[in-house]
Design a protein that fits this description.
- The complex is a heterodimer of chains A (328) and B (319).
- Chain A has 328 residues and is of the alpha/beta class.
- Chain A has a domain at 2-228: 3-Layer(aba) Sandwich (Rossmann fold), CATH 3.40.50.
- Chain A is built from 10 helices and 12 strands.
- In chain A, helix 3 packs across helix 4 (124-137), helix 3 packs parallel to helix 6 and helix 6 packs parallel to helix 7.
- Chain B is mainly α.
- Chain B has 2 domains: 2-73, no CATH class; 92-277, MetI-like fold (Orthogonal Bundle).
- Helix content of chain B is 78%, strand content 0%.
- Chain B has helices spanning 2-29, 34-39, 45-54, 61-73, 87-122, 127-141, 144-158, 174-208, 211-218, 223-260, 266-275, 279-307, 309-314.
- In chain B, helix 8 (174-208) packs across helix 10.
- Chain B is globular.
- Classes of the chains: A alpha/beta (328), B mainly alpha (319).
Chain lengths: 328, 319
Amino acid sequence: MTLLEIKDLTVGFDTEDGLVHAVRGVSLDLAEGEILALCGESGCGKSVTGMSIPRLLPPDSTRLSGSIRLDGRELTGLPEAELRRVRGKDVSVVFQEPMTSLNPSFTVGYQIGEVLRRHEKLSWKAARARAVDLLRLVGIPAPERRINEYPHQLSGGMRQRVVIAIAVACSPRVLIADEPTTALDVTIQAGVLDVFRDLRDRLGTAIILITHDLGVVADIADRAVVMYAGRAVEQAPVGELFARPRHPYTLGLMKALPTAAAAGADGRLRLAEIPGMLPSSLSDPAACLFHDRCPRAKDDCVTAVPELAASGPGHLAACFYPLEDGSR
Amino acid sequence: MIWFVLRRAGSALIVMFVASVLIFLGIRALPGDPAVVMAGEEATPAVVAAIREEYGLDRPLPAQYVTYVGQTLTGNLGRSTQDGLPVSEILLQRLPVTLELAALAMLVAIVIGVLAGIIAAVRRGRLPDYLATGFGLAGLSIPHFWLGLLGILLFAVTLRWLPASGYVPFSEDPGGNLLRMLMPSLVLGAGFAAVLMRQTRSAMLGALSSDYVRTARSKGLPESAVVGVHALRNSLTTVVTVLGLQLGALISGAVVTEQIFVIPGFGKLTVDAVLTRNYPVIQAVVLVTVAGYVLVNLLVDIAYAFLNPRVRLSGGTDG
């Protein structure tokens, strides 16, 4: 059952240098209880795609078009006041930086209680009691005590759990997690990912996980969308994607991952890098944006945009010359 | 929190002690014999000697200091050389006038400055921002005395809406008191409003682009709560700091403002005392000013701790 449907989402930002093309016609859908990874390198538009859903982008400079439907309801044309009823209730967000995304001047309990008071119209007392439950849900020990503490008294992992508690306080349909584990130690990462998995299983929350970390994708996601320069270049169930990447860019990303198999004869790790650089975000050419870095590019890659096309079960790739099975 | 306040109060006492030593030595380090200055140039040696003995000036400095502190603590600040009245009595008469002026000016500054700063930050790059920063620049650039004179010309002479000068105690005529205080407090408050506006604006701009404000927005909170609760609370530390720092300027501003509007306050007392070399009064005025500074700084520190939980728990101001 499709919960969220994004069609041809295009997002640009007005800057002094001109219009920056951050997202160029991305379409994707999210099923109930699904964990979908949006992955790609920095600047590929994955965060902007995620933040477009609750429209948490600078209103003055953002040019957004396309369609974002939640349960069939169009969000893109919604007035601010209506959207505020969606944010934190139907769609909520976990941000990358746990150290700065909590307000230093208010207690954890206040910051969790606030969202419950806003959407569930709870009293302070009831909101507080629920906040204690939520802290327990995200795995914070001694929540009755922690609730009165300020963010600076908590560790990074704890703070991220508090941010998650805020995000899931009103049992949202969709949770957007923007690099939720990037700022955390690896050992703490695993714990936070467990919290997400647990929330999906218990509350049925669908999660969009924005990350550049393919290890995280493999660990937790059901399906992944690979983005490059604002376009979705490949989309597949995670097992399928890792087993049979079709887009040369996806393969390049995977080759850059440290694995035991990548170790050379001398036992040292050699990681492959993708040659070249990201194309300028200021122009929007009718071409495959990866062509000048791609070993398989031919003439037509420079003159036409490859559309996402089926290349396996639930597997889509935007490439004229996709990789075949066993070519990696 | 109690420990924090006690520690701050302790360091305030140390500052007061050092200040009192400096004031005491400063007066004695002035060129010339204070006894001669007090007695006047025509005085006979006998009169000078009598004054020297009366004020204990013939005794060693440490002994003089102990006497000075003892007298000060018991409220004996000496007598004015001008009219022979006890300095403490003069202060009690003049201080409330200036405190009222300062409080009203601060009120004007906080209401106008903080509000304008918030609006300018929220409407950044639009008309309200340009208006606020434009008036802010004007408020900073125009000196008190000129603004005061213009105000008198416009509102008192031309329009005849407000009295040009004078003072009535609040206890005698509250309406008349406020009416006469209106223009002086606006004139004195305008500059501070401008400073506060600029500081509030930049603090709010910083807060509004912070991650926790984005988090607040992602909760679906109305913009009033995002700005008025999340951003403002973190900007208030800056506002309080600026208020504390501005106190010095407020005192010097009060001196000028009181001269223009002929208000018998602390500032006018200071100027008159300096012009007539009224040493006991100058000494007391400086001491009271220092005490005022120390007290305000103490209050600012406590306000910090109240506003910023990190200060409260670390026990310092560097949290």
